[in-house]
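Can't paste images in this forum, so I'm doing it all in text. The chain is below; anyone willing to post the predicted structure tokens underneath?
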Amino acid sequence: MPSMQTTICICFWTPPKLRVGSGAKAAATAEPEVTALLQLTAWGTLAIMPVTGDTFPTHMICILIGNLGASVTEVVSDAVVTEFSRTQRTGVLQSYAFIGLAAGALLGNLSGGYVLLRTQEPKIMFTAFSVLLGLQLALSIGTKETLPSSHGSSRSLLVKSSLSANLRKQFSNLMTAVREERIFYPLAWIMTSFAVVPVLSGTMFCFQTQHLKLDSSIIGLSKVMGQVMVVSLTVLYNRHLKRIPLRRLVGGVQIMYAFAVLSELILVKQVNLMLGIPNEVYVLCFSALAEAIAQFKVLPFSILLSSLCPPGCEGSLFAFFTSGLVFSAILSGVFGVGLSALIGLSSGGYSSLPLGILLQSLAALLPLAWLSFVPENWTADGKIVKQR
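Text version of the structure:
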């Protein structure tokens, strides 16, 4: 998925204080400085801790805490964007947020890779990341949060209730929203479209580094190119593609994804060398294409769910959405491991890798069979401003 980053997602986020009827405001009162502090603590510890076998469990705990903080931040930002988008044209804010995330990933990959290549010392990169998180923490403390639902409505009154009561309320709101067919079926399609495709990215990485002897920096730069593709696709979507009915758009993107997966055969069969394209150039330009398309595919569904989300359920619904996508990615990875074992792929032999890529590409076409789950005529080219 959306390059699916390895994150720890929570099914819903509820702080001790809630604003009645406003899921985004509830998420916003979760004190973003707490999530920044979690990440700062995790990455700061990694920056000063020696790398030995004895510290491995501590490293894993730090990564878990850092990912937890990042996940909560992502859920809160999705909820806030959703609430603000109700006063804007459909999809505009989501597109800008998507571009911002991709641009941030692009800058992070470039700067992190540059530091790592120049210094060969991961701790310097961890230290730089900790400094950035410290700046984020300072900005979070000094920023006053204001949402549309916090003005002119009795729902903006703060109420205090127990954590268990808040959890029950948010879970009830979430279940009510998910049971709606117009929300349930698109959610089911996007999650299953990732889950049914076995991922062979680990096998391809080993093939590129062990068999083709490619430098890992080339593969890292291919991820940068992937983020450039995501930014380009998002801009294209915001200007032109959002006028296309969702079912037709998603079907076309899924077919493109299947062909992008199949294009890995060119590298495996070394057809690129016959065409005069070096392996390094091909990997740099095309290796991350399928991942970029998969990441972009999430954007139309984010906009759809934002337009359909009931008021007061923004944070819970998008936490559930993100969790479902990550769970789908886990299933996809499990199926990838099973497929590798089934066809006899191993680090010592890649003769059956073309068959694995072919089966992966065919699996990417399977979600077209239940494409009717996606709304047929809905488009993100909304002209009406929705007031709260």
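The chain is about 70% helix and 0% strand. The first helix runs from residue 23 to 28.
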